[in-house]
Each structure stands twice: as C-alpha cells, then as structure tokens.
Amino acid sequence: MKGRPVLGVITGFLFGLFLGVTLFLYGVIPLSSDMLWILPLLGILLGLIMAAWAPFGKSAEPAPAQAPATVTASSGEGTADVAGDIAVETTSEEASEEAAGETDEETTEEPATD
C-alpha cells in the first residue's frame, strides 16, 4: 500500500474520537449512544482510505539536475558564474597572475629608496 497507512489510522481514530466527544458535549448524541464508539472506527476506516489514496493527484516530475559550472582560471576564456546569469570574463594575463599568486598591487609597487 502506498501512502502512510499508520498515520491514516492514528489521525482517523483521533478525528473520530474527538468528533464523538464534541457531538456528546454539544448534546447532539447521548452518552449511551453507540455512535461514541462507532465514530472512532469509522475514522480509522476513513484514515486508511485517505492514506491509500494519498498523494491526492499526480505528483510533479522532479526537476532535472543541472551540472555545476566549472571555472578554470588558467584557460583564459570567459566563464559563467554558478547561477549562470552573469558572465565573468578573465584575460590570460589576469589568469596567469592569479595562478602565480601575484596581484596588481604587488607588481606595481617599487621598493622605497632613501
């Protein structure tokens, strides 16, 4: 059986029990009525039917998994960010500097001589 039959039995029983108690407290059915024990049993039956029928309707197809974007700094070609909406352009000079661990600030600074 697909669905969740144990959850259906438990919730159906509680629904029938509280429905019987509510009807008794509002004076709809007397305490000596057989409906006070029939309602929880009908709730269990209703819970099993609902659990067998669930999920209601057809489930949606899962979305296909997208391959993660790969970023290669040494290739020098433009690549896209992970979300794929902003293009990131790198030049071969920037890529070689990043690969060597150098930045523009380190290469442009000259040592101070006094």
Model description:
The protein is mostly helical. The protein has two domains: 5-53, no CATH class; 69-102, no CATH class. Helix content is 47%, strand content 4%. It is built from four helices and two strands. The protein has helices spanning 5-25, 35-53, 92-100, 104-108, and strands at residues 79-80, 87-88. It has a two-stranded antiparallel sheet with strand order 1-2. A hairpin with a 6-residue loop joins strand 1 (79-80) and strand 2 (87-88). Helix 1 (5-25) packs antiparallel against helix 2 (35-53). The longest helix has 21 residues, at 5-25. The radius of gyration is 34 Å and the shape is elongated. The protein starts with a helix and ends in a 6-residue tail after the last helix.
